[in-house]
Amino acid sequence: MFSYDPYAELATLRDFAPLELTSPDFEPGGPLPLFAWATKRGGEDRSPGLQWSQPPAGTKSIAISCFDPDAPTGSGFWHWAAYNLPAGTTTLASGIGDLAALPPGATVLPNENRTERFIGAAPPEGTGVHRYFFVVDALDVDALEIAPGSTPAVLGFNRHFHSIARGILMGTADPAER
Protein backbone atom coordinates (compact mmCIF):
# COMPACT_ATOMS: atom_id res chain seq x y z
CA MET A 1 0.00 0.00 0.00
CA PHE A 2 1.32 3.41 -0.95
CA SER A 3 0.93 6.58 1.09
CA TYR A 4 -0.17 8.84 -1.77
CA ASP A 5 -3.68 10.21 -1.23
CA PRO A 6 -5.09 11.30 -4.61
CA TYR A 7 -7.71 13.49 -2.95
CA ALA A 8 -5.56 15.35 -0.39
CA GLU A 9 -4.21 17.96 -2.81
CA LEU A 10 -7.61 18.52 -4.42
CA ALA A 11 -8.97 19.55 -1.02
CA THR A 12 -6.50 22.45 -0.99
CA LEU A 13 -7.90 23.80 -4.27
CA ARG A 14 -11.54 24.10 -3.17
CA ASP A 15 -13.37 24.64 0.07
CA PHE A 16 -15.53 21.51 0.25
CA ALA A 17 -18.05 21.13 3.04
CA PRO A 18 -17.65 17.69 4.62
CA LEU A 19 -20.04 14.82 4.01
CA GLU A 20 -19.86 11.90 6.42
CA LEU A 21 -19.59 8.80 4.21
CA THR A 22 -19.95 5.35 5.77
CA SER A 23 -20.74 1.79 4.76
CA PRO A 24 -22.66 -0.93 6.59
CA ASP A 25 -20.33 -3.41 4.87
CA PHE A 26 -16.83 -2.29 5.97
CA GLU A 27 -15.12 0.00 8.45
CA PRO A 28 -13.14 3.07 7.34
CA GLY A 29 -9.66 1.87 6.39
CA GLY A 30 -10.74 -1.75 6.79
CA PRO A 31 -10.94 -4.61 4.31
CA LEU A 32 -13.66 -4.63 1.67
CA PRO A 33 -16.18 -7.46 2.03
CA LEU A 34 -15.61 -10.51 -0.17
CA PHE A 35 -18.65 -9.68 -2.33
CA ALA A 36 -16.93 -6.39 -3.35
CA TRP A 37 -14.03 -8.33 -4.89
CA ALA A 38 -13.97 -9.29 -8.57
CA THR A 39 -15.51 -12.63 -9.54
CA LYS A 40 -12.12 -13.81 -10.81
CA ARG A 41 -10.86 -13.41 -7.24
CA GLY A 42 -13.79 -15.18 -5.56
CA GLY A 43 -16.02 -12.14 -5.15
CA GLU A 44 -19.27 -11.01 -6.77
CA ASP A 45 -18.35 -7.64 -8.37
CA ARG A 46 -21.01 -6.13 -6.11
CA SER A 47 -20.67 -2.58 -4.81
CA PRO A 48 -20.77 -2.15 -1.03
CA GLY A 49 -23.63 -0.26 0.53
CA LEU A 50 -22.92 3.42 1.11
CA GLN A 51 -24.65 6.11 3.12
CA TRP A 52 -23.79 9.77 3.64
CA SER A 53 -24.96 12.73 5.64
CA GLN A 54 -27.51 15.18 4.28
CA PRO A 55 -25.86 17.34 1.60
CA PRO A 56 -25.82 21.12 2.16
CA ALA A 57 -28.32 23.59 0.78
CA GLY A 58 -27.64 24.27 -2.88
CA THR A 59 -27.02 20.62 -3.73
CA LYS A 60 -28.64 19.81 -7.07
CA SER A 61 -27.12 16.40 -7.87
CA ILE A 62 -24.72 13.75 -6.56
CA ALA A 63 -21.67 12.04 -8.10
CA ILE A 64 -19.92 8.93 -6.78
CA SER A 65 -16.82 6.97 -7.71
CA CYS A 66 -14.45 4.23 -6.61
CA PHE A 67 -10.74 4.54 -7.41
CA ASP A 68 -7.69 2.37 -6.65
CA PRO A 69 -4.58 4.61 -6.74
CA ASP A 70 -2.33 1.62 -5.95
CA ALA A 71 -2.91 -0.29 -9.20
CA PRO A 72 0.41 -0.80 -11.00
CA THR A 73 -0.54 1.39 -13.96
CA GLY A 74 0.93 4.80 -13.22
CA SER A 75 -2.60 6.20 -13.33
CA GLY A 76 -4.53 3.99 -10.89
CA PHE A 77 -7.67 2.02 -11.71
CA TRP A 78 -11.26 3.31 -11.78
CA HIS A 79 -13.76 0.72 -10.53
CA TRP A 80 -16.91 2.83 -10.70
CA ALA A 81 -18.18 6.28 -11.63
CA ALA A 82 -21.78 7.48 -11.53
CA TYR A 83 -23.23 10.96 -11.63
CA ASN A 84 -26.46 12.96 -11.98
CA LEU A 85 -27.98 11.09 -9.04
CA PRO A 86 -30.88 13.05 -7.50
CA ALA A 87 -29.83 15.62 -4.88
CA GLY A 88 -31.85 13.90 -2.14
CA THR A 89 -29.96 10.62 -2.50
CA THR A 90 -28.15 9.73 0.74
CA THR A 91 -28.02 5.93 0.53
CA LEU A 92 -27.04 3.34 -2.04
CA ALA A 93 -27.74 -0.27 -1.14
CA SER A 94 -25.17 -2.98 -1.67
CA GLY A 95 -25.11 -4.21 -5.27
CA ILE A 96 -26.54 -1.03 -6.78
CA GLY A 97 -23.47 -0.38 -8.93
CA ASP A 98 -25.04 -0.62 -12.38
CA LEU A 99 -27.31 1.84 -14.14
CA ALA A 100 -30.45 -0.31 -13.92
CA ALA A 101 -30.30 -0.27 -10.12
CA LEU A 102 -29.46 3.42 -9.62
CA PRO A 103 -32.07 6.15 -9.14
CA PRO A 104 -33.70 7.54 -12.33
CA GLY A 105 -31.62 10.20 -14.07
CA ALA A 106 -28.29 8.73 -13.00
CA THR A 107 -25.55 7.99 -15.51
CA VAL A 108 -22.75 5.41 -15.16
CA LEU A 109 -19.48 5.79 -17.03
CA PRO A 110 -17.34 2.88 -18.21
CA ASN A 111 -14.84 1.64 -15.64
CA GLU A 112 -11.30 0.60 -16.62
CA ASN A 113 -12.70 -2.65 -18.07
CA ARG A 114 -15.04 -0.48 -20.19
CA THR A 115 -18.19 -1.83 -18.55
CA GLU A 116 -20.77 0.59 -17.16
CA ARG A 117 -21.04 -0.84 -13.65
CA PHE A 118 -19.08 -1.39 -10.46
CA ILE A 119 -16.21 -3.84 -10.86
CA GLY A 120 -14.78 -5.46 -7.76
CA ALA A 121 -11.30 -5.40 -6.27
CA ALA A 122 -8.66 -7.57 -7.91
CA PRO A 123 -5.25 -6.41 -6.75
CA PRO A 124 -2.52 -8.39 -8.54
CA GLU A 125 -0.30 -10.71 -6.54
CA GLY A 126 2.89 -9.09 -5.34
CA THR A 127 1.51 -5.53 -5.32
CA GLY A 128 0.65 -5.35 -1.63
CA VAL A 129 -2.50 -4.02 -0.05
CA HIS A 130 -4.54 -1.74 -2.31
CA ARG A 131 -6.73 1.18 -1.20
CA TYR A 132 -10.18 1.81 -2.68
CA PHE A 133 -11.42 5.38 -2.35
CA PHE A 134 -15.19 5.73 -2.46
CA VAL A 135 -15.95 9.43 -3.02
CA VAL A 136 -19.33 11.15 -2.95
CA ASP A 137 -19.71 14.76 -4.10
CA ALA A 138 -22.69 17.04 -3.67
CA LEU A 139 -22.81 19.19 -6.82
CA ASP A 140 -24.23 22.65 -7.49
CA VAL A 141 -25.63 21.68 -10.92
CA ASP A 142 -28.70 19.62 -11.84
CA ALA A 143 -26.69 17.59 -14.34
CA LEU A 144 -23.10 17.40 -15.45
CA GLU A 145 -22.89 17.45 -19.23
CA ILE A 146 -20.35 14.75 -20.01
CA ALA A 147 -20.12 12.89 -23.31
CA PRO A 148 -21.34 9.28 -23.21
CA GLY A 149 -18.45 6.85 -22.89
CA SER A 150 -16.17 9.41 -21.25
CA THR A 151 -13.68 8.21 -18.67
CA PRO A 152 -14.12 8.54 -14.91
CA ALA A 153 -11.19 10.99 -14.99
CA VAL A 154 -13.31 13.33 -17.14
CA LEU A 155 -16.04 13.06 -14.52
CA GLY A 156 -13.49 13.81 -11.79
CA PHE A 157 -12.33 16.92 -13.61
CA ASN A 158 -15.86 18.23 -14.15
CA ARG A 159 -17.19 17.40 -10.72
CA HIS A 160 -14.26 19.14 -9.05
CA PHE A 161 -15.51 22.51 -10.30
CA HIS A 162 -19.07 21.91 -9.10
CA SER A 163 -18.55 20.13 -5.79
CA ILE A 164 -19.83 21.93 -2.71
CA ALA A 165 -19.40 18.98 -0.34
CA ARG A 166 -17.35 15.79 -0.41
CA GLY A 167 -17.20 12.57 1.56
CA ILE A 168 -14.42 10.00 1.28
CA LEU A 169 -14.39 6.43 2.57
CA MET A 170 -11.38 4.21 1.99
CA GLY A 171 -11.40 0.42 2.12
CA THR A 172 -8.60 -2.04 1.43
CA ALA A 173 -7.97 -5.31 -0.38
CA ASP A 174 -4.95 -7.55 0.19
CA PRO A 175 -4.08 -9.87 -2.72
CA ALA A 176 -2.45 -12.26 -0.24
CA GLU A 177 -5.95 -12.97 1.13
CA ARG A 178 -7.39 -14.22 -2.20
TrEMBL record:
Family annotation (InterPro entries): PEBP (IPR008914), PEBP-like_sf (IPR036610), YbhB_YbcL/LppC-like (IPR005247)
Any Pfam family the entry gives: PBP
SUPFAM superfamilies: PEBP-like
Superkingdom in the source lineage: Bacteria
Similarity section: Belongs to the UPF0098 family.
Protein name stated in the entry: Uncharacterized protein
